[in-house]
């Protein structure tokens, strides 16, 4: 079977385009480009990310994305494991007595082990109870202003000296499963793995701390989270207007107060910076569909069930649909993804999906319905 990874690599080499140039043009990192060419689907957070990036990469290289996706699905089916039922063999009848005897011997051995170990059970229970009490105990840490690295657990508290007056501002760890949740007087703050986040703990519009999450478990909250905490300098306490890498023109992102229909917006993602996002539109019926991404020209077409349109935007995209119920809209921003609600069958709808800058300094990806 022809390898779709080799097709991608050969196309890139024929165009004599470096991975760095592709990363700048498509916002797909070099690691993901390498994973696409080497068919490492497991490197992506989910299959929807893989298909979205694969479609974008095909469009950039001028390849037939439908053919590439067909090769991918064919390989996926070919590599699927054989059902266990087909591998099972019928056990000979003479094995039944042997199995019964083995089970009896195993049960007897277990009974002997329990009998001789029963005297140790109370000590083990007491030790386990002590460990549980220690885990459930709330630990408080006084932040001194110096950089610190700690492993925090749910319920732990960080005491940060107040800027004015006496006393401390208390930050409480709300959760450590998949990410770090910190409860502050100004609201709940979420820090993702490997993210360095500016935290405004008192709601004055200035960042007070920098928290970097270096380790957290996705399936066991008892493991806690390892974080590095630094004090944010006064001269650098505003949220930066550009990250210098994403290609998003942050200077062109409008303030939320200046956006029409902002009061009726739907927020689907927020962060301390803005970056390119991807919209995957899957059609489940016939629909006249038109879109405009950033400063590019309008693209219009009549699509049928099963077709897919992928749009990558830096700042925003405007969509117009003749039958909103005939399609599904999936938005990917950072490492998060969102499915947008659809309207009634036959309903015509126009909407903007764009970044806006709110008064708290955060950037929010919002959906705005247009008149």
- Tell me, rounded to a whole number, the average pLDDT: 83
Total beta-strand segments: 19
Global structural class: alpha+beta
User: Runs with pLDDT <50, length 5+?
Assistant: 234-246
Cα Rg: 28 Å
Number of helices: 8
Largest sheet: 6 strands, antiparallel
Number of domains: 3
Strand content: 25-35%
Q: Roughly what percent helix?
A: 25-40%
How would you describe the shape?
globular
The order of strands across the largest sheet is: 10-19-18-15-12-13
User: Kindly, what is the distance between the CA atoms of the first and last residues, rounded to a whole number of angstroms?
Assistant: 51 Å
Spell the H/E element sequence. Answer: HHHHHHHHEEEEEEEEEEEEEEEEEEE
Supply the key terms:
single chain, 371 residues, alpha+beta, 434 Repressor (Amino-terminal Domain), six-stranded antiparallel beta sheet, five-stranded mixed beta sheet, 31% strand, globular
Chart the SSEs and their pairings.
Elements: H1 4-15, H2 19-26, H3 30-37, H4 47-61, H5 65-78, H6 84-87, H7 95-117, H8 121-136, E1 140-142, E2 148-152, E3 157-161, E4 168-175, E5 180-184, E6 187-191, E7 196-199, E8 209-216, E9 225-231, E10 266-271, E11 277-283, E12 287-293, E13 299-303, E14 308-313, E15 316-321, E16 327-333, E17 336-339, E18 349-357, E19 363-369
Parallel strand pairs: 1-3
Antiparallel strand pairs: 2-9, 3-4, 4-5, 5-6, 7-8, 8-9, 10-19, 11-14, 11-16, 12-13, 12-15, 15-18, 16-17, 18-19
Helix pairs in contact: 4-5
């Amino acid at each position: 079977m022809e390898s779709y990874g080799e097709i991608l690599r050969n196309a890139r080499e024929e165009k004599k385009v470096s991975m760095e140039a592709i990363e700048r043009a498509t916002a797909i990192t070099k690691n993901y480009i390498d994973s696409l060419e080497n068919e490492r689907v497991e490197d992506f957070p989910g299959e929807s990310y893989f298909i979205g990036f694969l479609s974008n990469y095909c469009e950039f290289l001028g390849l037939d994305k439908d053919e590439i996706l067909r090769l991918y699905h064919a390989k996926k089916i070919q590599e699927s494991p054989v059902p266990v039922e087909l591998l099972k063999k019928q056990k000979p009848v003479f094995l039944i007595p042997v199995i019964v005897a083995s089970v009896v011997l195993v049960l007897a051995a277990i009974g002997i082990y329990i009998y001789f170990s029963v005297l140790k059970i109370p000590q083990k229970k007491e030790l386990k109870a002590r460990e549980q009490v220690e885990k459930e105990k709330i630990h408080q840490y006084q932040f001194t202003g110096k950089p610190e690295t700690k492993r925090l657990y749910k319920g732990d508290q960080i005491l940060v000296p107040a800027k004015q007056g006496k006393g401390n501002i208390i930050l409480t760890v709300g959760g450590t499963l998949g990410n770090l949740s910190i409860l502050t007087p100004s609201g709940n703050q979420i820090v993702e793995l490997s993210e360095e986040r500016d935290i405004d703990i008192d709601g004055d519009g200035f960042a007070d701390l920098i928290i970097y999450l270096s380790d957290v478990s996705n399936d066991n909250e008892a493991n806690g989270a390892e974080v590095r905490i630094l004090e944010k300098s006064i001269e650098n306490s505003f949220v930066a207007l550009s990250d210098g890498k994403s290609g998003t023109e942050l200077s062109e992102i409008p303030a939320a107060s200046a956006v029409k229909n902002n009061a009726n917006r739907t927020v689907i993602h927020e962060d301390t910076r803005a970056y390119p996002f991807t919209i995957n539109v899957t059609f489940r019926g016939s629909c006249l569909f038109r879109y405009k991404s950033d400063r590019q020209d309008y693209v219009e077409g009549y699509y049928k069930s099963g077709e897919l349109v992928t749009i990558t935007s830096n700042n925003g995209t405007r969509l117009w649909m003749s039958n909103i119920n005939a399609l599904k809209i999936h938005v990917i921003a950072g490492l998060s993804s969102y499915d947008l609600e659809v309207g009634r069958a036959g309903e015509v709808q126009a909407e903007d999906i764009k970044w806006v800058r709110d008064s708290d300094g955060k950037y929010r990806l919002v959906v705005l319905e247009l008149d």
